[in-house]
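Regression test case RT-17, inverse folding.

Input:
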């Protein structure tokens, strides 16, 4: 494996005295003696990763669950759709803006302490959101949720990277990844049921008992924080990267909502955000203590893995917005039923993820990831080719299972390939970068797919029926029946673009490590 320049100058986590983990747990060899402290024992590592999954599910669930409640929120608060959309967009903006701070904050405050703070902040925001008295307060409390949620996954991944033995890292990462893939698929199911049968407020209140359990268990079982060398905060980098990400996410999200990327309100934030991010990248290459260490990309495994994630996540997560829309707009199903019809993908991805984690610990990452991408591409091709106004549900659900199996065999093995072999000190920057790429790719992919779908509908329909929002809320069964074939064709066309992105991800995946992990030889 090609190593980073920093790897060549300092020992790895397994070699560096006193930095194998920050757990303070060993077999009697104290860190003061200069010997290497042991990793966290395997049973405790399993408990840690399960706690991390529980915490991460809250954030991934909340990224999708609000989508099914937009119409109800608009009615209850008597607010226009353009305002209510900020309930979702405000959360995404805060989430993306906080991720870059995670690496520095982990070193400054300690991973366990920061994780507990993030969970507490997210849980408090959830309770306040559930108690919101108007649309403005709900948006504000969703931003508070995002500030905590943006740190949960990257800090949690750092804790796992420091605690897990290298030979079990793939399996542990795959378990952690259940939240990434299963959350967005199951969120609409539970969210739809809560909105239809209970109250939209319980979409947020449900996080209170989960957050409380995570805090109690994490405080008891997570590794203790040990003193770390404090790095100064890269304030110029922070002032470029976080606002840059927020502006870029705002631009692409607004473009997706308006179904138009040509207006000044969309172009200006995208351009400004891109320039700020480019400025951060240029400065980070020469800064002594950059907010995110871009030297990681000198590592061939890290660079090829993140390149794979950019394309695959954009196609895979971006297309998730299409499925519930297809079932509701074309087939006339309820929000709850639309979520249930996607459950085969969630089950397949969860199962395949565990198998993929075992495989990437035993075989060369390039073989595992290429197999996963090929499987996902085959599923997308099957789904796209069969998509019509009257396609039997069992055909679509079978194709979704293949897509889910491909996604489960791709995402976390790719992340494992990106982070395996990095030193203890590089773990925060690596986990932050990987999660930032996933968040940005998913947001951009979703916005672009939304625009592609709207344009495809406009090409095939005329009048008000061409607008997806009107289709979902105002179209009669008779009108739906008459335009369903054209609508299905628009969805089929849009899924084709997602398939293109999935296929393109094969290119960077070809450069992943071609050798088995050293411990499996």
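Golden output:
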């Amino acid at each position: 494996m090609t190593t980073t320049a920093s790897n060549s100058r300092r020992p790895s986590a397994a070699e560096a005295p006193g930095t194998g983990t920050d757990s303070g747990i060993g077999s009697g060899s104290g860190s003061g003696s200069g010997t290497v402290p042991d990793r966290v024992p395997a049973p405790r590592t399993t408990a840690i990763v399960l706690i991390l999954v529980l915490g991460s599910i809250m954030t991934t669930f909340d990224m999708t669950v609000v989508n099914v409640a937009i119409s109800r929120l608009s009615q209850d608060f008597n607010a226009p759709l353009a305002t209510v959309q900020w309930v979702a967009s405000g959360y995404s903006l805060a989430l993306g803006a906080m991720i870059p701070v995670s690496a520095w904050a982990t070193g400054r405050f300690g991973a366990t302490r920061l994780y507990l703070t993030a969970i507490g902040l997210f849980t408090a925001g959830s309770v306040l959101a559930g108690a919101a008295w108007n649309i403005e307060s709900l948006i504000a409390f969703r931003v508070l949720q995002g500030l905590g949620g943006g740190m949960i996954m990257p800090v949690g991944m750092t804790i796992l990277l420091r605690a897990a033995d290298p030979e079990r890292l793939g399996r542990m990462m795959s378990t952690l990844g259940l939240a990434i893939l299963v959350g967005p698929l199951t969120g609409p199911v539970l969210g739809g049921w809560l909105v239809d049968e209970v109250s939209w407020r319980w979409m947020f209140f449900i996080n209170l008992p989960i957050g409380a359990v995570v805090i109690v268990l994490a405080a008891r079982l997570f590794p203790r924080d040990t003193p770390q060398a404090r790095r100064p905060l890269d304030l110029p980098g922070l002032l470029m990267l976080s606002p840059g990400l927020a502006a870029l996410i705002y631009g692409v999200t607004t473009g997706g909502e308006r179904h138009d990327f040509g207006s000044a309100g969309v172009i200006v934030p995208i351009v400004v955000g891109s320039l700020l991010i480019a400025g951060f990248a240029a400065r980070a290459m020469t800064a002594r203590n950059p907010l995110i260490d871009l030297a990681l990309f000198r590592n061939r495994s890290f660079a090829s893995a993140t390149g794979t994630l950019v394309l695959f996540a954009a196609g895979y997560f971006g297309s998730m917005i299409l499925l519930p829309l297809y079932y509701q707009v074309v087939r006339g199903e309820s929000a709850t039923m639309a979520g249930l019809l996607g459950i085969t993908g969630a089950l397949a991805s969860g199962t395949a993820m565990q198998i993929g984690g075992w495989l990437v610990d035993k075989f060369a990452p390039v073989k595992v990831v290429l197999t996963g991408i090929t499987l996902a591409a085959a599923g997308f091709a099957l789904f796209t080719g069969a998509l019509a106004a009257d396609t039997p549900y069992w055909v679509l659900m079978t194709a979704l299972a293949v897509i889910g199996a491909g996604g489960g065999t791709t995402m976390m093995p790719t992340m494992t390939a990106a982070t395996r072999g990095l030193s203890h000190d590089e773990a925060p920057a690596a986990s932050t970068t990987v999660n930032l790429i996933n968040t940005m790719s998913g947001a951009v992919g979703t916005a672009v797919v939304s625009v592609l779908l709207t344009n495809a509908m406009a090409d095939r329909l005329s009048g008000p029926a061409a607008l997806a929002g009107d289709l979902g809320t105002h179209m009669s069964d008779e009108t739906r029946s008459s335009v369903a074939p054209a609508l299905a064709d628009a969805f089929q066309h849009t899924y084709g673009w997602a398939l293109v992105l999935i296929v393109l991800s094969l290119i960077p995946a070809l450069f992943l490590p071609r050798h088995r992990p050293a411990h499996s030889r």
